[in-house]
Design brief:
The complex is a heterodimer of chains A (about 140) and B (about 120).
Chain A (H helix, E strand, L loop, with lengths): L1 H35 L7 H11 L3 H21 L4 H7 L2 H12 L7 H18 L10
Helix pairs in contact in A: 1-3, 1-5, 5-6
Chain B lengths: L2 H28 L7 H11 L3 H21 L4 H7 L3 H11 L7 H18 L1
Classes of the chains: A mainly alpha (about 140), B mainly alpha (about 120).
Chain lengths: ~140, ~120
């Protein structure tokens, strides 16, 4: 019982880390790439210049670091939790991005998106009520 | 929706989920991580990259990623992204039949609600 409780606790912590690293990494990557501007030509020298500018950007390196941390948290949580638990539970990331857009960037969020946000929360609560691990480690 | 678009959506959903399922299988082979000190985490990640399922997973995710890039060159993102919300259902099916997870009724209901929610958020 204590084992199961501690497993649930560390699953929640890692899911929270996954969602935080994943959504902030995506937002920073998008911001960094937009700052570089659209790539108009895929001629080799143009592409090389574009990517060397991308890899010279601190924002993009920070985004890459966050996305690596996301991958590490994802792999760790999958070492004990079911994929059918982790995958729907991580959809809470969509809710975080919508809330960040609304509260921090002042974006307009249409009604259908709010309904989607509520449904995701409800679905995650239902999935979160099940036991994170239903298989024995092989 | 053209047959080609439907085919590419199916490829993205199925290969993306098979990729995640392969990664999950690799991590289950390693077993539950109990110690979270940096040295042990590096050891665990190092072990994961020596398991063939990790590489199969990465290859399948790459197929999904490049199919998405190709599909977005002709189809609208407002159709493509909500359609890929079906991934949650396909992933749960794969987890039950390929990984032997016991997906009970409660979890199925949750997965279905999440699918609809994600599709609405992405419309």
């Amino acid at each position: 019982m204590a084992e199961s409780k501690s497993q649930r606790g560390k699953t929640f912590v890692l899911l929270a880390l996954m969602v935080t690293f994943g959504s902030s990494g995506d937002v920073l990557l998008s911001q960094g790439m937009k700052r570089l501007g659209e790539i108009h030509s895929w001629a080799p020298e143009r592409a090389i210049t574009f990517f060397s500018r991308a890899f010279g950007s601190g924002t993009i390196w920070l985004a890459i670091a966050l996305l690596i941390l996301f991958l590490v948290s994802y792999m760790l949580v999958l070492s004990w939790a079911d994929f059918s638990y982790v995958s729907p539970a991580s959809a809470i990331g969509y809710v975080m991005v919508a809330l960040m857009g609304y509260f921090f960037l002042g974006e307009h969020v249409p009604t259908t998106r709010w309904i989607g946000v509520c449904l995701i929360c409800a679905g995650v609560i239902v999935v979160g009520g099940t036991h994170p691990s239903t298989t024995q480690n092989q | 929706m053209t047959t080609r678009t439907a085919l590419f959506i199916a490829i993205i959903v199925v290969s993306g989920q098979l990729g995640d399922l392969s990664l999950s299988r690799a991590m289950k082979t390693i077993g539950e991580v109990h110690h979270f000190n940096p040295l042990n985490l590096l050891r665990v990640i190092g072990r994961a990259f020596r398991i063939k399922w990790t590489w199969i997973g990465i290859a399948l995710m790459a197929v999904a990623f490049f199919s998405l890039l190709a599909l977005l060159s002709w189809a609208n993102v407002s159709l493509v992204v909500p359609a890929t919300a079906a991934s949650y259902l396909v992933g749960a099916l794969g987890a039950q039949f390929l990984l032997g997870e016991r997906v009970n009724k409660e979890r199925w209901v949750g997965v279905l609600i999440v699918c609809i929610g994600v599709a609405l958020v992405c419309v």
